[in-house]
Design goal:
single chain, alpha/beta, two-stranded antiparallel ribbon, 7 strands, 37% helix, elongated, disordered C terminus
């Protein structure tokens, strides 16, 4: 057994057992995890979007775009509304600035804004919708900004966030085509 030795105010050393929660991080991240599937709307086809929504287990769609549109090839706004109703998926629009930050100050501001919005919306969604969410972004580079903003140190956040691009986007970025 290891013990932390701390000097007392009198100058003599005393031995005490320090509770692990107050001084030491766990070896494993045991926080509840939120799954975040990102869809870059400018980079995907309407059929890919419809397939991602209908085949996913996600019950919450967060549209982070300032100007949401669904006029993709093979898709329109009324088709998307019906799709959300068919799969019992809630749609929330909460515009986020996901442009790559210019400097460290902008990075911290972006991180704070993203965490406040996602924590507020996912928290309001409740346990039924709270474990996973689809986030609609404008383009693929915004996925990296979202991932960076949600990445945190173990123990400092109530939940951990797993941000992943849709498989069609990941395979296109690897030079493969999944259409």
């Amino acid at each position: 057994m290891l013990r932390l030795v701390e000097p007392s105010s009198c100058g003599e050393e005393i031995f005490s057992v320090v509770p692990p929660a107050s001084r030491q991080l766990s070896l494993f991240d045991l926080r509840p995890r939120h799954s975040v599937l990102c869809l870059p709307m400018a980079d995907i086809h309407g059929a890919t979007f419809a397939r991602a929504i209908s085949q996913s287990r996600h019950k919450l769609v967060l549209d982070a775009r300032t100007y949401p549109y669904f006029d993709l090839p093979g898709l329109n706004r009324s088709m998307v509304s019906r799709l959300f109703e068919d799969v019992d998926c809630a749609y929330v629009q909460a515009p986020l600035d996901l442009r790559p930050p210019r400097d460290q100050a902008a990075r911290w501001q972006r991180r704070q804004a993203v965490r406040e919005v996602l924590t507020g919306i996912v928290g309001r969604a409740g346990p039924r919708n709270g474990s996973s969410v689809i986030v609609l972004v404008n383009s693929s580079p915004e996925i990296d900004v979202l991932d960076e903003a949600l990445r945190g140190l173990v123990g400092h956040e109530e939940h951990a966030w797993d941000v992943q691009p849709h498989e069609a986007v990941a395979s296109v970025s690897n030079g493969l085509t999944a259409w």
